[in-house]
Write a structure and sequence with these properties.
The chain has about 90 residues and is of the alpha+beta class. It contains three helices and four strands; from the N terminus they run ααββββα. It has a four-stranded antiparallel sheet, with no helix packed on it.
Length: about 90
Amino acid sequence: MKISTALDATSKQTSPFSGLLDRFVDLVKSVRIEHRQRRLRLCESLALGDKRSVAVVEFEEQRFLLGISSSGISLLQSLGPAPSSGESARAERA
């Protein structure tokens, strides 16, 4: 028997798991992953030493300045609406 004939015969045989594998691949292709948009975002933070820092966070299109220490988190200032993406890019260049 030639090697090519043996390979052809082997490739024509199907494994009992091939149908299961095909079904699994079809299932994986049909799954849709939805990415949630994050509502809370850390814009910037600055360490002040001794386990203290300040941070600007954005939540639902509003910005807040927070003071962070080992004893807790305090709202220092509400900064108002978050800038649009175009405004923040201009501010970074300035």
